[in-house]
Amino acid sequence: MPPALPQVAGVEHREVSVRGLRVHVAMAGSPAGPPVVLQHGWPQHWYAWRHLIGPLAQAGYRVIAPDFRGFGWSEYPPDEDFRKETLVDDLIALCGALGHERISLVGHDWGAWVGWLLCLRRPDLVERAVLVSAPPPFPPDRIEPAALGRLGRVAYQIPIAAPLPRAAKLAWFRSLGKVLGGRPPDEVEVYTATLAQPSQVRASTLLYRQFLTHEMGPLIARRYGGQRLSVPVHLLYGSEDLWFYEGLVDEPLPHADAEYRGEVLRGVGHFVPDECPDLLEERVLGFLRAQAPASTSDVKNSVSAG
Prior knowledge:
Blueprint (H helix, E strand, L loop, with lengths): L11 E7 L2 E8 L6 E5 L10 H9 L3 E5 L17 H14 L5 E6 L1 H12 L4 E7 L12 H6 L6 H5 L4 H14 L8 H8 L2 H23 L12 E6 L21 E7 L5 H4 L1 H12 L7 E5 L6
Parallel strand pairs: 3-4, 3-5, 5-6, 6-7, 7-8, 8-9
Antiparallel strand pairs: 1-2, 2-4
C-alpha cells in the first residue's frame, strides 16, 4: 500500500487515465486560470512543489503537478518503459486528457529534462518554460577534454541503475542529497516513504538504467543537435550543483529562436525548490508574466542554505 498523501493547503488530488495508466495529479487554483504544469524530478514527487503551488494558484494560475509514471502515487507501467521521450509522451497525453492545448511548464531535475524535450518536440503546446537543474540536450560543436571529463559525473547514477539489493538502494537514495550538491531536499522521509515500495525501487533503477544504456549514446551522437528552441525558456542552475560548470547556462543561446534567459544561482545546490523557494517563486512568476529580460546572468543566493 502506498503511504498517505502529504497535505498541502488548497490542493486537490485526481487520478487521470493517461495512455492506459492511472496518473496521480495534484491540482490547485481556478480551473479557468492559465494552466501551469509542475513536473518533479527524482527522487521526489509532486510534493517537491509544495512551496510554489500556493503562490501560483493565488496569482490566478491553474496548477497541475503530476507524478511521473511509476512514482509518487501514479501507477507502475506494465511495459516498464521509463525512457524520457516516453515521459514526454505521457505529459502530452495528460494535457490532452485535461483539455489543455497550451500550457506553461516548470520542471526540476528529470522534470526539467523532459521539459527540454517537450519544448523541442511540441513548441505549439508550451507557452513558456522555467527549467531548473537540468542541462540542455544540445551537444557541443566540439568535444573538448573538459567535456569528456564531465562525463564522469554520471558515476552517481550507476548504483541507482545497478541490480543492488533494495536496502542498499534505499541507503544510496538517502545519501544523494549531498552527492548532488548543496542541501538535501527538505522532508526526505516524505520521498523515501514512496521510494521504499518495491515498484518504485524498480522504477528508479529503470529510470537511470535506460538512460545510461539506451539514451546517453544517441544523446552524445547529437540526437538533438540540429533542433531549434522556439519556446521562451528560463534556465536556472545552482552553482553548487554536481552538474554545473561555467558557461553551461549560455549553451542554449545558439539554438534559441525565442526569448532565452540563463541564470546561475550562486551558492545554491541541486534542489532549488527546497533551498530557495522564495527566489524560485519570484523567477517563475516573473517569467510566466513575461517580465524576465532575454539575457544571461548570475544571481548570488541570499537565502540561507540551512
